[in-house]
Amino acid sequence: MTNPTPPPGREAPQTPQTLEAPVRFRDLVAAEWIKTRSLRSTPWTVALTLLFVVGSAVAATASDHHTRPGPADFLPYDAYPPAGSWTLILVAGSVGALTVVSEYSTGLVRATTVAVPARGSVVLAKAVVTAVLWTVVGTIASAGSFLASQAVLNERHAGVPITHPGVFRALTATALLAPVCALVGLGLGVLLRHSAATMVAAVFLLLVLPPMFSERVRWAADVRHAMVSSAWSRLVQSWDPDPVSLAYSPTVAGSWAVYVLWPLLAVALAVLVVRRRDV
User: Which terminus of the chain has a lower count of CB atoms within 10 Å, N or C?
Assistant: First the structure.
């Protein structure tokens, strides 16, 4: 059956399809947020992550009984022990990857691309929701870890305020660690599209790979310092590198650049790939 041809000089009647409003980017962001919020695993994952990260700070501070002469100083690895940061990296990277991989495994991505042919916009909307969610989680984890550790140290008259030198940088670096890793995981999810492979790649890239490169060789130190976890370690340190050390130390500015470049490259590569590859 074909539509009747309109008389000369008259416009064809608009069908419901032509009257449909185009999908706006904020609608995509809202849809992704509803999708994320409706998952029952989301609040449990966030709650358990915060509990473990803050709890690891309390445990590390409570077990640190070394007496330090002089005025109180900021103890970054009491407030932000490696166990807490590794948990934040692992969970944020995994959840960021699952944001994309779960849709490929269930076939939901086909329905999404039919409803919204602009695949790059869909990936950008996922990136916005992921970044905002994990920035909030990272901020709560960072502030909670610092306050909990200082509460323990205040009982020994060794606590420091947030205005103490080095505290704000460490607090900010830890808060941003979660969204950076989540966006890297999202990018890996778009590239690999397989749950197990993406998880292995995220763990290897974010946690396993940096310690494999020595800081005593220039090229290896450059590779190590270009990793997210190495950048975080430098940013939370409140002291300058040892001038007599034979190891090459990362710079603060370079570490912030790593924080900026990794998520930008991951999202840009994800948008480029999803536009060129079939679902």
Answer: N
Asked if the structure places residue 88 within a domain, the reply is yes
Per the confidence metrics, is the pTM higher than 0.90?
A: no
Range of the domain at 144: 26-33+40-61+74-239+246-276
Q: What angle do CA 54, 56, 60 make, to 5 degrees?
A: 120
pLDDT at 10: 54
DSSP state letters, 227-279: SHHHHHHHHH--SPPPTT-SSPPPPHHHHHHHHHHHHHHHHHHHHHHHHHS--
- Locate 242 and state its tokens: 């040892």
Which tens digits make up the pLDDT trace of 131-150? 999 999 999 999 999 999 99
Residue 2 lies in a domain: no
Joined tokens for residue 77: 């690895």
Sign, CA torsion 190/193/199/205: negative
Please check whether residue 8 lies inside any domain of the structure: no
